[in-house]
Structure formats: structure tokens, C-alpha cells
Specification:
Blueprint lengths: L3 H11 L4 H17 L12 H12 L5 H9 L2 H4 L4 H8 L1 H13 L9 H15 L2 H16 L6 H21 L3 H15 L1 H15 L3 H17 L4 E8 L2 H10 L11 E7 L2 H14 L1 E2 L5 E2 L12 E6 L5 E8 H15 L1 H5 L2 H4 L12 H11 L15 E5 L5 E5 L4 H8 L1 H5 L1 E6 L2 E3 L11 E5 L16 H14 L6 E10 L4 H11 L4 E9 L2 E10 L1 H14 L3 E8 L1
Helix pairs in contact: 2-4, 3-4, 3-9, 4-7, 6-7, 7-9, 8-10, 9-10, 9-11, 10-11, 11-12, 12-14, 16-19, 23-24
Length: 566
């Protein structure tokens, strides 16, 4: 287990803190260590190690003290005996708020693949927490948990990997944590799709393993050539494409492995945009470029603000290598877009910044990036809710924890009609978070809503005065119109056409039986695998409409239903 002095050394290598901040971080370090002292993880290690690693992930991004302290303490409320009062007294209201946010996110689980639910959960995390720092701390927590997934039972591995793939990876991408997303995606791919993972490994292992050393030689050659030409190189690093990324590209390339040119990559970070293009020319003078594999994302950034030059070359080592060329300001935003803005004030205190070696992006990224920049620089975190993709929405839960998206200002009646028309039509009462509330109660993010239905309860005209959604308004008006329609009975003939197959007639007759409607006459004809059924009965207009809807919804293979009144 890491001790304070070692942790402090890593901390100060990355971030400049005054003594008061260091003292508070040290207090959090020992508080969390004591709180978790009798707890271990599935692999037998002390639980506190997880808290340390979560904090170290954020330290690596050069984030502020509130991130580090909250990461160290992120599980003390839920897993230990620490009270909210103690946390508030020892570390302040802001830290308590962040810890509570991370804790609450952990209460909501994602158990099965559902695109709508995944998107709702991602939006809920952002909207409910009201502070993007909570989402960042939770992502760091999930990153460490996914790194140690192999110690859990297989079924739990799959559930966590599914939740990570569908909820947390897209969230990480949305917030600009592309390197975290890539690492998590590789682990999820291995757990959730092992056959595909093995397929890619077996296909490319013999191509990758013998060429790793060649990549190091190419990197050294390029670095030496750049320095000889006066390029101010910040960093040259190499990478091997992840197996999940290779698989995705294989799908786009008709599963032809010979069309995958970017298995090996070298990232070159320089000082200026001018040096980016000079570097590109030097690399093309060394190696043969593939014109079709060149992209200029500096002149034309990607929609998310990503900027870099990409070129694929055939090297003298007889392997294809993709070079990514960018400035340090581009690199910071590309790799840690959201976190880069949080780190802004911390970076300004470092010697490297004061020497001019660390630069931040200009006001020319996409609209979302510009919005993020504006309030991060001002530390105005609660303004996050003003971003367009969260504006005017709330996310509430059914008792079974299904997430429902509604417009801000929605009521339990809106919720009921979103679940099902009949639940809305027969809504008699509602509980929110276990307590009875009025039907015009304004729902809030995170509310758990339970509708109490009564078949004798009908919509009221008054509901139209407070419901928010157009669906609820339409359903209420429709019900009230129907209930006021004449109810006199009359003879009706239904002519039903559909596919002739066993059980169809019985299904139709069963619907009439359950509605207590007697059929006076019936005629049938079958031809070319189709049937025509004519039924005569007595009913009012509303019952006829209901019968028709039930037949359409419950009997498969119906082509047409015609109504003739006698």
C-alpha cells in the first residue's frame, strides 16, 4: 500500500499546491485509509488501494484539490461509517456535495442492453449531479474498477462491462476523455465479445509481435531527423492499435486485414502549427506516404474539436505506420478535453507553464468545446446544466429503476402517460420517493415515481391545467371526447381480412367474449391463404372502436377491418 510521502511526491510532480491545500489532502488521505482499514477487494488487496488509484488517475490530469480529496473519500459515505456531518466539518460543504453525487450515481444500475435507457442514464448522470466534476470523479472510479474486473465472478464482469460500454464509455467520449474510453472499451470488448476478441488477436498477433522493436527504431530515427531540422519536439511516443479498434476498422474494410494500415502509430508533439506541417514534410521525405490515408484535422477539425495531422507511410522497416502530428495545446484537448479546462488554473502555477511549454487551445473549437471552456475557466461548474443537450429535461425513475426522460416541469400525470395510456387514464394517486404527493407535483431529477392506478378513476378536465407533455394533453382530450360521445347501442357488421392460419378465429372470438359482446351472426370465407370474416353484433360506438383496436393489436396477420353500421 502506498504511504503518504510517496503519494505526496507524485502529487507535487504533477500539480503545484500551497501548504494549506497539501494539509487538507493529507487529512483526506489518512481519513480514507482509516475508514477503509478493515476492507479488502475481491483480489485480497486493501480497499484503500482503489481510492488511491482513483485519485492518481485524476492527479495525472493535473486536476485540483477538490478532485483529489473527493477521489480519496468517494466511498466513505456508502461503505464506511462516516457521516455527512463529519465530512462537512472536516472537509467542507463542496467536498461533501461531490462525494454525495458520486455515491448517488452508484445507486443506479444498468442490467440489459437498451439504447434508450443507456442514453437516459448518461444524461441523468450529468443532469442529476449538477456539477460535471462529479461525472469526472465517477469516470475515474469506473476506470480503476474496469482495470480490475478480472477478479469478479463472470456474470458480474459482464454486467459491469455492459454498463461501462453502453453508459460510461459514451459519457467519457462526450466529455472528451478519449484515452479513458479507449482503455475501457478494450476491456469490455474482451469480456462481452470474447470470440470476436480472439478472432482479432489470432489474426494480427503474428503481425504485431515481431514488429514492436521496429517501431522503436522508427521513432528514434524520426526524432533525430526532426531535431536535426530544428523542430522543437515536445514528445514522440508510439502505440499499437487496440484490438477493439482493429475490429471496428475491419468491419468498415470488409474484414480484409490487408486494408488495415494504422496498427502501428507514432504521435509527434511539437510547439507550433507551422512545425506540424514542417514535421509532416520531413516524415514524407523519410518514408513513402499513402495519399489516400492522409487527413488534415488541423485545417478542418473534427466536429468534437479534435485537431491533428494524420498520415500513413510505408517505412524502411517494411511496416505501415500512422503518424499523428499536433501541438501540445491540441494534444491536451484531444486527449483530456474536459479535464484540460479544469486543469487550467493549476497549470498556470507550474514552472513548465511559466516557461511557455504548456499552451491551451484557442477560441476556435466547436460550440460545445467553447461553452465548456467558458465556464471551466471561471470555475462556474453549475452552469453545466445550461448546455443544450441537457436543457429543459429531467430524468426520473420507475420503482424498478427504469429511467424516464421528461420535459422539465413535468408532473406525475405526464409520467403516467409516458409509461402507458391506460396507466395515465386510471391514475388515482402517486408516491414520489415513497411519499404521497399531489398529481400536479413538479417532478425533479432523480425522483422515484410510483403511480397508483384505479380502474374506476378517469381523467379530469383540470389535469389539462398542469400537465406539461403534448402526449398527456392529447390522451386526456381524447378520453374526455370519447366518454362524452353518444352511447346508444346499434347493430354493427365488422368485415375482417387477414392471413388464414390456425387460431386466428378463436383469438378474435375470445376478444368479443372478454368484452361481453355477443356475436349475432358470422360468415367466413378462405381463399389463397387469406380469410374474410364477417361478424354482426350490437354495441355502442366506443365499444366498437375498442374491439377494433384490440383485434389490430392482439391478433397477428390482420390486413384490414371495415365497419358497417346498420
Amino acid at each position: 500500500m502506498m504511504e503518504w510521502n510517496e503519494f505526496r511526491e507524485i502529487l507535487l510532480k504533477n500539480i503545484s499546491f500551497n501548504q494549506d491545500d497539501l494539509n487538507l489532502i493529507e487529512k483526506a488521505f489518512y481519513f480514507a485509509k482509516e475508514a477503509h482499514k478493515n476492507q479488502t477487494r475481491k483480489n485480497g488487496e486493501p480497499y484503500f488501494n482503489h481510492c488511491l488509484r482513483t485519485a492518481l488517475i485524476l492527479i495525472n490530469l493535473k486536476l485540483g484539490k477538490e478532485f483529489i480529496i473527493s477521489a480519496l473519500l468517494h466511498n466513505v459515505l456508502e461503505d464506511c461509517n462516516a457521516s455527512e456531518e463529519i465530512i462537512k466539518k472536516e472537509f467542507g460543504e463542496e467536498i461533501l456535495f461531490l462525494i454525495k453525487g458520486v455515491t448517488k450515481i452508484g445507486h443506479y444500475k444498468y442490467y440489459q442492453e437498451d439504447e434508450e435507457q443507456a442514453e437516459n442514464l448518461r444524461n441523468f448522470i450529468l443532469a442529476f449531479t449538477k456539477d460535471i466534476r462529479v461525472a469526472i470523479i465517477k469516470l475515474a472510479d469506473r476506470l480503476d474498477n474496469i482495470r480490475t474486473l478480472q477478479y469478479l465472478p463472470l456474470e458480474k464482469q459482464k454486467r459491469i462491462a455492459l454498463e461501462t460500454r453502453d453508459v460510461f464509455i459514451p459519457l467519457a467520449i462526450r466529455l472528451g476523455f478519449y484515452n479513458w474510453a479507449t482503455e475501457m472499451e478494450e476491456i469490455c470488448f474482451k469480456v462481452l465479445e470474447p470470440e470476436k476478441y480472439e478472432y482479432v488477436v489470432n489474426l494480427f498477433k503474428e503481425k504485431i509481435e515481431p514488429n514492436k522493436e521496429k517501431l522503436e527504431i522508427i521513432k528514434k530515427t524520426v526524432l533525430e531527423e526532426l531535431k536535426n531540422n530544428g523542430i522543437r519536439v515536445v514528445e514522440v511516443s508510439h502505440r499499437i492499435k487496440s484490438y477493439v479498434s482493429i475490429y471496428k476498422k475491419l468491419r468498415r474494410k470488409d474484414f480484409d486485414p490487408e486494408k488495415i494500415y494504422d496498427i502501428f502509430g507514432i504521435r509527434t508533439i511539437v510547439q507550433t502549427i507551422e512545425e506540424c506541417y514542417l514535421t509532416l514534410g520531413i516524415i514524407h521525405s523519410l518514408y513513402l506516404p499513402l495519399e489516400a490515408e492522409f487527413d488534415d484535422y488541423i485545417a478542418k477539425p473534427k466536429p468534437n474539436g479534435y485537431r491533428s495531422l494524420h498520415t500513413v507511410v510505408l517505412t524502411d522497416q517494411e511496416i505501415f505506420v500512422e503518424f499523428q502530428i499536433r501541438t501540445q495545446e491540441m494534444h491536451i484537448i484531444n486527449e483530456f478535453g474536459t479535464a484540460a479546462y479544469f486543469a487550467y488554473n493549476q497549470f498556470k502555477l507550474t514552472k513548465s507553464y511559466q516557461k511557455g511549454s504548456v499552451v491551451f487551445a484557442k477560441e476556435e473549437e466547436t460550440k460545445l468545446t467553447q461553452e465548456l471552456r467558458s465556464f471551466y475557466k471561471n470555475q462556474n461548474f453549475t452552469d453545466f446544466l445550461n448546455l443544450d443537450f441537457l436543457k429543459d429535461k429531467i430524468y426520473v425513475f420507475t420503482p424498478k429503476r427504469k429511467i424516464i426522460e421528461l420535459p422539465a416541469g413535468s408532473t406525475p400525470i405526464d409520467f403516467a402517460y409516458k409509461i402507458h395510456t391506460e396507466i395515465g387514464n386510471h391514475c388515482a394517486g402517486v408516491k414520489v420517493n415513497g411519499n404521497f404527493v399531489s398529481l400536479d407535483y413538479e417532478l425533479k431529477n432523480g425522483d422515484i415515481v410510483e403511480i397508483i392506478a384505479d380502474k374506476n378513476k378517469k381523467p379530469s378536465l383540470d389535469w389539462l391545467n398542469f400537465v406539461k407533455t403534448s402526449k398527456a394533453k392529447k390522451k386526456i382530450i381524447s378520453f374526455l371526447r370519447n366518454i362524452n360521445q353518444p352511447k346508444e347501442n346499434g347493430d354493427v357488421i365488422l368485415k375482417i381480412t387477414g392471413i388464414d392460419k390456425p387460431g386466428v378465429l378463436n383469438s378474435i372470438l375470445e376478444i368479443f367474449k372478454k368484452q361481453n359482446i355477443n356475436i349475432k351472426e358470422h360468415k367466413g370465407l378462405t381463399k389463397n391463404n387469406r380469410f374474410i370474416l364477417q361478424l354482426k353484433f350490437t354495441a355502442n360506438q366506443r365499444d366498437v372502436k375498442k374491439i377494433v383496436e384490440l383485434i389490430k393489436n392482439r391478433v397477428n396477420g390482420i390486413f384490414e377491418i371495415k365497419i358497417n353500421k346498420l
